[in-house]
What we know:
Elements: H1 15-19, E1 41-43, H2 52-62, E2 69-72, H3 85-94, E3 99-101, E4 117-120, H4 130-137, E5 141-146, E6 161-164, H5 168-180, H6 186-199, H7 202-213, H8 216-219
Parallel strand pairs: 1-2, 2-3, 4-5, 5-6
Helix pairs in contact: 2-3, 2-5, 4-6
Amino acid sequence: EPDDLIKMSERVYNFQRVFNLRQGFGKRKHDDIPYRAMGPVTIGRLTSRKGADLLLRVWKRIKLKNALLFLIGTSQEDMVQKSNADEVRELVNECGDSAVYSGRRDDPWNYLGLFDIMVCPYRVREGMSNTILQSMAAKNIIIASEIPGIIGFLKPGDDSMLFPEDDEVALEKILKEVINNVEKYRHLADNAFERVKSEFQLENVINCYHQIFCSPFCKGT
């Protein structure tokens, strides 16, 4: 099968240049359709809290021909949520060629530049998401759920698009709109990049910690 010839060297660092040579990797039924930088993508542990199952159920219905869903994650269980890896893998299979599950990657941030869109369909709550920060730095268009930890950090309409937690209908509507009109929403990624560049530069973060540790509260403890 041609797909058996498609391999990626671990020594390749400029993945964007590799994927620009799409026709050189063998003929697949979606090779005649231009990819939108192989997006969207989602990254996270395969637990109910991370919401990959929600995204896949939506993707299974829409199966947009000009995009490929790419999932990066592991089946590691945490203290609260058990793994739903089996359900996720089954849903990926049901999506056919429109979804790919890569498994665990030690350097997922190196893949973000391939994608136009990052989807964070988290449930319940989320802390300061490294995935979102890395996606902002990679100039991804961020689509995320409205949960504590994301509300108040992201600015919907300025640097992201948010949808109600666990709302498949709302997520489906946003995905269709963004994927079919990527350039219309490119300003969200640009704004997110400028924001993370200004607010999360190493020097700024160091200064912030310095102010905290020099505050009267810390001096008195």
